User: Fold bis(5'-nucleosyl)-tetraphosphatase (symmetrical) from Anaerostipes hadrus.
Amino acid sequence: YMEVQQIEEKLKTALKPSRYRHTLGVAYTASCMAMVFGVDVHKAYRAGLLHDCAKGFSMEEQRALCKRYNISLEGTLTKSPQLMHQEIAPFLASDEYKEQDSEVLSAIACHTTGKIGMTPLEQIVFIADYMEPNRKMIPGLSKVRKLAFEDLDKCTKTILKNTIEYLTECGQEIDERTVETYKYYRDKKE
Ligand code: DGI
Ligand code: FE
Ligand code: FE
Ligand code: FE
Assistant:
């Protein structure tokens, strides 16, 4: 077990200053959302801290880490290497940052694509990552920031809709999990 302060010190040396700043933004934003929705504030803070712990590694290093952790590099990760850090994160958090809480690990494991039937903690990390205050302003962000403290399902749906639109405009491959998560929250009954 590592104290939060130790985790922060280690992340500060592992990540670029701008990424560390984003990391703290996600940790604080996720903890505020946890207070609103009755989720464990310390789990939200730790998941926020650890979600991008693999981002300090180059793409080459991330490929090597995928091999070490038996994460398949075929298919989705070949087309979208920026998703590798999501797959590596729970292994690295467990090995290097001694995180043992399965809810924290599962929240960081789906922070980029989301997944069907997310727990409130998983949704909070997914949402906080998108809208923490250090993120640069993009269309629709003010609406997402308001929804984040009102309705987790609506907020999740809006983020995925915006992300799919953005990736389509850039001509980037959209992961099937991103699409199926969007459809799940689009069709979910209140
Ligand atoms: O790691 P962050 O920059 O904090 O944010 P993130 O982990 O949510 O997303 C990393 C990048 O991945 C971001 O530019 C958006 C992109 N992304 C999200 N969903 C998909 C995706 N890229 C592809 N190719 N496919 C997706 O489904
Ligand atoms: Fe990320
Ligand atoms: Fe994200
Ligand atoms: Fe992030």
Observations:
- Residues 4-187 form a domain with the Hypothetical protein af1432 fold (CATH 1.10.3210.10).
